[in-house]
Amino acid sequence: MALESEAQVYRTHLMDMLGVNDVNEGKFVVIKGDAISPPFETYEEALEAAYARHGLGPFLIKRIERNESVLYFSRDLR
Q1: Which of 33, 64, 67, 74 has an alpha carbon within 20 to 30 A of 23's alpha carbon?
Q2: Hey, what long-range contacts does 25-28 have (CB within 8 A, 24 or more apart)?
């Protein structure tokens, strides 16, 4: 699966990324391999930094959340 290792890095380091008193909750990080960027205030800032550093190659931008939101999607399978 694409970006599986980056997703695991996120899960492993989540508590560190949250910071003291969850100061970084709601911010965004860029993860490429084992490297984690400093937190960005917005998704757009994280995306711009990711393109500047990694080009079009695969990278993960993830919102730092103690309790991850679950989204449900359904569609007609006809």
Answers
A1: 33
A2: 25/64, 25/65, 25/66, 26/63, 26/64, 26/65, 27/63, 27/64, 28/61, 28/62, 28/63, 28/64
pLDDT tens-digit series, residues 26-53: 999 999 999 999 999 999 999 999 999 9
Average pLDDT, the chain: 93
Alpha carbon 39 to its chain centroid, in Å, reads 10
Domain ranges of the chain: 4-63
Please give the Cα distance from 30 to 60 (Å, whole number).
6
pTM: 0.85
**Which stretches of 2-64 are assigned E, i.e. beta strand?**
28-32, 35-36, 60-63
